[in-house]
Amino acid sequence: MSKTITTETSQLSVVREAILNAARWGITEFIVEIVKSNIDLLMTLDSDLRSIFHIAIAHRQENVFGLIYGLDTAKYNFIPFCDKNDSNMLHLAGELSPESQVKLQQISGAALQMQRELQWFKEVEGIIPPMLKLHTNGKEETPYETFDRSHANLVKEGEKWMKDIAQTSTVVGTLIITIMFAALFTVPGGPDQDTGVPLLLRKKLFKIFIISDSISLFASTTSVLMFVGILTSRYTADDFLKSLPNKLIIGLSSLFISIAAMMVAFSSTVIIMVKGQLEIVIPIVLLAGIPIGLFVWLQFPLLVKIFISTYGPGIFDRKMKWL
Fold it and tell me: How many angstroms separate the CA atoms of 273 and 276, rounded?
């Protein structure tokens, strides 16, 4: 009889350790199947007195943490838990531990890494009762103090990353503004000597030139203003959640539009000048597409990542149902 009990205890210990490891590595399916067979296994704690949800937060495993939304009211049995260091869930979300840094390496750019950390902190903050938000742990720190201390270096790295992009893009935007502004006063065909009205005013290609030149000028001006806003930002931690990404999205998008419009203006001017000589027009128009392609290749993936990270569906599944 004692051997049977010992065997069952040993097997249960193995299962509990497997659940904890699954939480660390983000193996959600395993946890769901095991817990469905025995709901009491949800109360499994590791040596630091952390539940699978605390472990998921510490290791930044969003899929495992998302299981807490499938517990409905039962999730409030886990939220008040504190580990052996008296840290609650929000403390763990605010701590940039070695485990969480491993997950952050999958995200390119310090600013986007900082945004992801803020998304985690805000998500956990949303389910934590107000009294726990000011709870101090063994280091006598509130969750907010833990976050500020732990992320101080990442904030500096994010600031440098943002400013490097903004400074480089500002130079490009300023050059485009200068070129497009000058082009408006040196229109193809020149002005009428008596009236000052452009001679080719009624030509469709000339209208395309004027419209694309104006779009390029306005878009590049917008991009420069956005990048100046990035350079002069306060760079508080919360700025990395929405404010700075929004400015970067608008700045890069406007810069792309300005470059594309500039190439259209250039191509329309060439067509007017060579008067339909296709053997000259076609190669020049194709070459004009190279700068647009280079921008798409170099900067568009970054723009997409920032857009999805800021406006996408998010990494947390709040509608999960699994029990």
Answer: 8
Domain that holds residue 65: 2-150
Q: Which of 118, 150, 182 corresponds to the end of one domain?
A: 150
Of 60, 166, 158, the closest CA to residue 113 belongs to: 158
Nearest-angstrom CA–CA distance, 12 and 225 = 62
The answer to whether residue 240 sits within a structural domain is yes
Same-domain pairing of 194 and 295 = yes
User: pLDDT of 36-53, one tens digit each?
Assistant: 888 888 889 999 999 999
Whether 48 maps to a domain, the answer reads yes
Measuring CA to CA, which residue among 167, 95, 219 is closest to residue 211? 219
- 143 & 192 share domain: no
Helix axes 278-298 and 243-274, enclosed angle (nearest 10): 170
What pLDDT is recorded for position 217?
94
Please tell me whether residues 8 and 90 are part of one structural domain: yes
Q: Give the model's pLDDT for residue 194.
A: 55
**pLDDT number for residue 287:** 80
Which residue pairs, CB below 8 angstroms and at least 24 apart, start in 227-236?
Answer: 227/166, 227/167, 227/169, 227/170, 227/173, 227/251, 228/166, 228/170, 230/162, 230/163, 230/165, 230/166, 231/163, 231/166, 231/167, 231/170, 233/162, 235/155, 235/158, 235/159, 235/162
Residues of the chain with pLDDT under 70: 1-9, 187-203, 276, 322-323
Residue 200: the pLDDT is: 52
Predicted local distance difference test score (pLDDT) of residue 188 = 59
**H or E segment to which residue 74 belongs:** none
The pLDDT, as a whole number, for residue 281 is 72
Do the domain assignments include residue 323? no
Whether 262 is in a domain gets the answer: yes
